[in-house]
Specification:
Order of helices and strands: HEHHEHEHEHHEEH
Distance between the termini: 33 Å
Strand content: 5-15%
Structural class: alpha/beta
Radius of gyration: 19 Å
Shape: globular
Mean pLDDT: 94
Largest sheet: 6 strands, parallel
Oligomer: single chain
Number of helices: 8
Number of strands: 6
Bound molecules: farnesyl diphosphate
Low-confidence stretches: none
CATH superfamily: Decaprenyl diphosphate synthase-like
């Protein structure tokens, strides 16, 4: 499952428990722009390097046996960035899948997307839909890209959807429960994240998975996303393993 180098690295991390790997990890990949600015490079170079980190962390999460990895790649608010940057970000899925597909297939990774992809440029939609289709029979890690994703819009759409069903007489107000609302979200059939990681020192959710993160553990690291290595990821997992998840109840032992 692991190559020797990774095995050694894991052994070096005192107390790491291979049996306590979070099932679902969500990541806000922040700091690409600052990584580039610090090196006097254009912001898009930061996004390019960010894409390399996506490949590394995906492979590592898959090796560790993580079942779901959700990556915040483009928010509904990101459209307000300069046109050149938006256009570069929109071309990234095509760039990424063209070089990454053999590795995704070799690792049995299944690609999924959450967000309003119909608003994306045609080539982006095509790249994403092809990747979803090609990997649809894979049964390993579910790699979920949040693209043109906004949590408030997701919840509003779910509410509208349910209201319509009430209006049509298909359900009553009393039928509305957590399960029903969850079945109307983009993430239906996907368990809630156990862990949220945000890189680059910012400590906010930025309209990401507001409902789904209700009981997740949060880890904020100062490392920018292009500098976030497998070793940093392992450190985040180690911190997660030290947390006591109580879900509003009392400590077990
Ligand atoms: C946040 O950094 C990052 C983004 C808005 C884009 C994330 C995209 C990638 C990591 C590339 C991979 C994506 C795909 C779809 C393959 P920022 O630009 O907000 O950084 P800053 O806060 O330092 O300016």
């Amino acid at each position: 499952m692991f190559n020797i180098f990774k095995k050694k690295e894991i052994k070096k991390e005192q107390g790491f428990n291979l049996k306590k790997i979070p099932k679902h990890i969500a990541i806000i990949m922040d700091g690409n722009g600052r990584w580039a600015q610090k090196r006097n490079l254009p912001r898009i170079k930061g996004h390019y390097e960010g894409m390399q980190t996506v490949k590394k962390i995906t492979k590592y999460a898959s090796d560790l046996g993580v079942k779901y990895l959700t990556l915040y790649a483009f928010s509904t608010e990101n459209w307000s960035r300069p046109k050149r940057e938006v256009s570069y970000l929109m071309d990234l899925p095509e760039k990424m899948f063209s070089s990454f597909m053999p590795e995704l297939m070799a690792n049995n990774v299944k690609v999924l997307v959450i967000g309003d992809i119909e608003e994306l440029p045609q080539n982006t939609q095509q790249a994403v839909n092809n990747a979803i289709k090609k990997t649809s029979d894979n049964t390993g890690l579910n790699l979920i890209f949040a693209l043109n994703y906004g949590s408030k819009k997701e919840i509003l759409d779910a509410i509208k959807n349910i209201s319509y069903d009430v209006k049509q007489g298909n359900i009553t107000v009393e039928n509305i429960d957590e399960q029903l609302l969850e079945s109307k979200l983009y993430t239906k059939n996907i368990p809630a994240p156990d862990l949220l990681i945000r890189t680059s020192g910012e400590q906010r959710l930025s309209n990401f998975l507001l409902w789904q993160l209700a009981y997740s553990e949060f880890i904020f690291t100062n490392v920018t996303w292009p500098d976030y290595t497998e070793k940093e990821f392992l450190k985040s997992l180690l911190e997660y393993q030290s947390r006591d998840r109580r879900y509003g109840g009392l400590h077990e032992g």
